[in-house]
Amino acid sequence: MTETILQADGLYHVYESKAEDGNVVALRGLHIDMTAGEAIAVVGPSGSGKSTLMKCLGGLMKPSAGSVSLSGKNMTRLTGQELVELRQKTVSFIFQEGNLLPDLNARDNVAQPLRHQGVSSKKALALADAMLTRLGMGHRSNALPAMLSGGEQQRVAIARALITQPRLILADEPTGALDPVTSREVLALFKDLHQNDGVSFLIVTHSKEVAAFANRSLELRDGRFVAEHGEGVDVEN
C-alpha cells in the first residue's frame, strides 16, 4: 500500500484586514494527496497563494479552515511541542531568503538542526562540514551570512535543510538566488535524493527546469488549483 506523506483537505486561509477592500482569501478549498517519494511542483504568479500554501502545509501557519496531515498525523490538532517534534523528524524547509542565523557561521548554521535533535556538537559539525563540501561551500564554512553572496547563502540554507535527512522537503524557489551552474548542481542533488533515497519534494517555483524535475506540477491561481500536468494527478478545486 502506498503511503501518503502529506495530505491537505478543504484548505482555506483568510488574511483579515481593516482595509476598504476587506479580508483577503489566499487559499480556497485546496486538496492535495502526496505519496511518499513523490516530487510535486507548485507553479503560479505572484499573489496566487503559493507562499501561504507552503507555510500551511509545513505547519508554520494554521489554516483558517481545513486540515493538513503529515505522515498520517493531523497537524492542525497537535500541540505546539508535538508539532515541533513531528517537523523535526519528517520535514525540512528551504526558503528563497535563506533565513540563516546572522551570528552563526555557515558551519554552525548547518549543524544547528542536528543539535536541536540532540546530536553531539562534534558529530553535528563533522556532518555539517561534509554537507557543505558536497554543495561546494566547504571553503566558506567559517564565513558569517553577511560575508556570503546571495547564492552562497542559499547553498548554506539548502545544506541546513538536507542535514537531518528529512523524508519531505518543502522548498520555496530553492534555486531563485543561484547562478545557472549552481542551480543545475543543486537540482542534480535533489534528483539524487529523490531517486536513490526516496525523499519527497514539494517545490514552489517559477523555473521550468525545476518544475520538470517533479513527477507532476500544479498550477495555482487566486488560491485555487486551475491546471495540473503529469501522471496520477489528484486535484480538486
Strand content: 25-35%
Looking at the structure, what is the overall shape?
globular
**CATH topology call of one domain:** Rossmann fold
Q: Kindly report the spatial arrangement of strands forming the biggest sheet.
A: 6-7-8-3-9-10
Spans with pLDDT under 50 lasting ≥5 residues?
231-237
**Element pattern in H and E:** EEEHEEHEHHHEHEHEE
Number of helices: 7
Report on the biggest sheet: 6 strands, mixed
Could you give a short description of this structure?
The protein is an alpha/beta fold. The protein has seven helices and ten strands.
Task: Identify the notable features of this structure and list them briefly.
237 residues; alpha/beta; 10 strands; disordered C terminus
